[in-house]
Amino acid sequence: MSFVLVRSALDQLVQVLEQDGYDVYGPVVVDSAIRYQLVHGIDELAIGVRDVQGPGHYSLVERSDDAMFGYTVGVASLKDLFFPPRRAVWSSVREGGTLRFEPAERPEPKIAVIGARACELAALAIHDTVLLGGEYKDADYLRRRTDSFIVSVDCTEPGEVCFCGSMGTGPAATTHFDLAMTELLVDGEWEYVGRFGSERGERILERVTHRHPDQIEISLVRSAVSGASDAMGRELSTVGLPEFLASHREHPAWADIAQRCLACGNCTQACPTCFCVSTLDTASLDGSRASRELRWDSCFSLDFSFMGGRPHRSTIDARYRQWLTHKLSGWVEQFGTSGCVGCGRCITWCPVGIDFTAEIPKMMERVDA
Ligand code: SF4
Ligand code: SF4
Fold it and tell me: Quick check: CB of 344 below 6 Å from ligand 1?
């Protein structure tokens, strides 16, 4: 542990980041849910609220204290900031007998985030691999990630649907942060006991009032984080899981789940690692203008697998199986990690509460039986 900030110093941190040209995003209550929003001070953050999450359920309730990061994860993840749901690609104008194409404006935002969770940083690491690690890089994602500044806050009160402990991604951040902190209430005062993740983090903190932690604060952080690991709401055994899913493509459970699944795609939209997109072309009625944009898509949509004149995943069980087996099995082969970071969003935001941490053990039991 390297530093301690008091709450007012967090405001200083926001100001220093703004002075350096950053757009600072933090967790804010919007429409009864927590989302990352542009902020200019810490009094805009989601203070004194806690989220209650369960299969198909999300609500916010008041806390008995004024913790600033006393919730688990918000409805949207860092994906919204670095890989936004809609991106313009080009537009065209018909002039006389010719068509003029123009590339879309390429924003170069300088993004800073305060309050990112460990699971979200694990998802960011996955997106860095998928979107930047291959021969063809996502130029827009690269622009947003370049110079981004991440302040992580460890989870000390995991929720009912969290299982980052099983996936090795939390509750404390280990990667992809510039500063990481744990929020503690010590003698009635909020403290943020932190560690550095980059030289840039050290340079920024030189301009913020801080002090070194003492042994008591260090041990309080350790017990808060280990308490969070013990209190994890769910678990998923990943030993042999990729092989199990790959070898049970005809398991009857896929059809059982499909009886409940609405193929709405909420799980893929909420998931911080899903990255499928499609292109949408639109044209004005008189044909004088047209444009193309990239939009998030979902393997649950019928059109997503349209090839050779028909969708080749025409049933919901085929689409659910595609999502889950790619996420937990094919992804490992393709990118070297699981595609799941255990944030639980797909469980919370599934309108019918499908929970694969419960479905997979049932599948395995049926095979054993
Ligand atoms: S699959 Fe579900 S639990 Fe796993 S990262 Fe995606 S939303 Fe989170
Ligand atoms: S699993 Fe749930 S969230 Fe995902 S497509 Fe089916 S009904 Fe929608």
Answer: yes
